[in-house]
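Before the break, one more example. Copy the sequence into your notebook; we will annotate it together after we see the structure.
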Amino acid sequence: MALTLIHFTDNAVNVDEYPKASWQPDWFEWVVVAGWFVYSAIGVAGYRFYREGRYPAAHVALVVYGLAVASSVAHFLYGSPADMPTFSAVSVFVDLVAGLAVIGVALWS
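Here is what the structure looks like once it is written out:
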């Protein structure tokens, strides 16, 4: 979650530095901020389900969380990594790896 917080904070603060779709409204950074809280709530629920031994619910929540986190790579649908600051591009790739790792653990479990 800390890794995704870094990316989402960068995305919200530096929204103009990220490639964006032509349909993206000016208030979109607030969707990004709200999205982090929704993603994180799903991740926390997955963790809690796992600790409680509720594995089917945990697996679903963790896979959904992992997909949501990994979806940061969708930034590149609207531009290449070269179109954004290096830190921002790296944070997208870190989110991708972190999301895939969460999915991997959930599937392995």
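The chain is about 70% helix and 0% strand. The radius of gyration is 15 Å. Try to locate both features in your own notes.
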